Amino acid sequence: MKKIKNIGYLLTYLGFAFFIGSIFTGTYQVKPKDFDQWIIDKNIKSNLFIEKTRHDLINRELNSWRLSKIIINNAKASNTQLKNQKKIEWSKIIPLKWSKTSKNYIYPLIRKSATGWFKSHPVLWFFLTFGLSIIGGLLVFIPDYKLLGPAGIKNNGIFQHSATNRGLIGMITALFFIAFYVVLYFFPNYIVNPILAVNGIKQFLNNKEASQWFLYGCMYCAVMSVFAVRMLIKYRHNRYQILRTVVVLFFQITFAFLIPELLEAFNQPWFDFKNAWPLNYSFFFDWSIDGLISSGKFGIFMFVWGIVLTVLIVPIMVYFYGKRWYCSWVCGCGGLAETLGDPYRQLSNKSLFSWKIERWLIHGVLGFAILMTGLTLYLYFLEIPSWKEVAFGISGYDIQNWYGFFIGSVFSGVIGTGFYPILGNRVWCRFGCPLAAYMGWVQRFKSRFRITTNGGQCISCGNCSTYCEQGIDVRSYAQKGQNIVRSSCVGCGVCAAVCPRGVLKLENGKDTGASRTEVKDILLGNDIDILTMAKNNPSNE
Ligand code: SF4
Ligand code: SF4
């Protein structure tokens, strides 16, 4: 079994090496017609830039780094020359921003110009990257069924291993995650070869060209599937964990990945039916509303569904089941946190200080989302274009961009997932997700969901608090025999799964009002005077 596991590691590292290697290899050749079309699409008007770049790029074989550098250097030179003129021609200035130029300007050209081995062998390439990593990952985890011994919680050595105790391996992993998200969001021009590896799947699904987001979708599903196998083996003694893992994987693969792709195949807008506002922060943006409404009856249905989901379905479901129905059973972010992120759940900070930060941050993001959406709808209904100034030189479009950059990209992606090995697996869900904040209010004040505690059984081992990914000190509730009613609890159920005494139970039976948060008296040894008890109850003698 150990040999199989080692072979698994070897295959995973090989797949990973091919993936990384592809970023630094591969060639690109810009064709004249693609170049001309790119100039038109990007509305580039600087002749200096156009001629120089045409000369530097056309029909030359370049790698992605060199090609990107030529475009940026030429744009800088052109802008400098234009700005040195007496009368600056602003329409000819090429906007250069690190967060935008690569993805908006360079990526479309480089994506079209790929040549060579990666383009001509997509199936083999897919096997060497995705295939080897998936097979390797499964070979690493499946032997655990035997190696870990009988079913039961297995967290042995978790604080000794450098990968899971913020050691060197953990830090390297975090750096890799962070770098991956930065490249994915802002520099897709460097991952064209990995994108080509999944192009065949995209063409099979809807006959379109794969983008970095499609690559991300494929990776997301693949990683979640492999780590779901790990979860199923690790928690095989716990029916709740098995069901939850299977369901969240189902929602990711069908609702977040396959259905939106198939919608595009039928010329409908890409739409994730489970992604509720304000997590889906662009739902009320003008282009989104227009796109849905102009797509006919089905588009209007999707628009109405999005509103009903946010306004009715989400709070009603939270009333009956707590926010766990979404955060731990449906949501893709939660799904990744519960699969890929499970080895890091013990790293969540339990201090009072982090709880204070959590409350300010998460409600701050919710406030930002509400303000931005309110402004967007105001502009939409008054038919004011989003790019027009609202106040102090700021337009509605600027505010949407800031939210997209700081919250949609940096917080939810780069920090939210990149920091798993440092801050635990629910960084985004705990500190940033505005939908979690909204559901948290309903869960705290009007929901049947609570975790009941049989305090007399608690041996204060602290397992529950250690493995609570939301940083809740579960043990302190258990010691008091108090129900856990916290807005941040995502109902993952791991506190109950790791409790050796069966103290904790996730419940959503009928709410009887005060009993939900009531602290019951617990009989502890020190509270009992045996002699007096015996005197008062002669039958006990
Ligand atoms: S209290 Fe328990 S169910 Fe809630 S988030 Fe923490 S571990 Fe999960
Ligand atoms: S895991 Fe169970 S026994 Fe241990 S502290 Fe928590 S509630 Fe008590």
Write the layout of secondary structure elements.
Blueprint: H1 2-24, E1 27-29, H2 32-41, H3 47-57, E2 61-62, H4 64-84, H5 101-112, E3 114-115, H6 117-120, H7 122-141, H8 144-147, H9 168-186, H10 192-197, H11 199-206, H12 212-234, H13 239-265, H14 286-293, H15 296-321, H16 324-327, H17 332-339, H18 352-381, E4 389-391, E5 394-395, H19 396-415, H20 420-423, H21 427-431, H22 434-445, E6 450-453, H23 463-466, H24 474-480, H25 494-498, E7 504-507, H26 530-536
Antiparallel strand pairs: 1-2, 1-3, 4-5, 6-7
Bound molecules: iron/sulfur cluster (SF4) (2 copies).
Describe the protein's architecture and organization:
It is built from 26 helices and 7 strands. By secondary structure, it is mostly helical. Among the domains are: 89 residues, no CATH class; 177 residues, no CATH class; 93 residues, Alpha-Beta Plaits (2-Layer Sandwich), CATH 3.30.70.20. A 3-stranded antiparallel β-sheet has the order 2-1-3. The chain has a two-stranded antiparallel ribbon with strand order 4-5. Helix 4 crosses helix 5 and helix 14 packs across helix 15. The longest helix has 30 residues. The chain is globular and about 105 Å long. It starts with a helix and ends in a 5-residue tail after the last helix. The mean pLDDT is 91.
What attributes characterize this protein structure?
about 550 residues; 3-stranded antiparallel beta sheet; about 5% strand; binds iron/sulfur cluster; Alpha-Beta Plaits; two-stranded antiparallel sheet; mainly alpha; about 60% helix
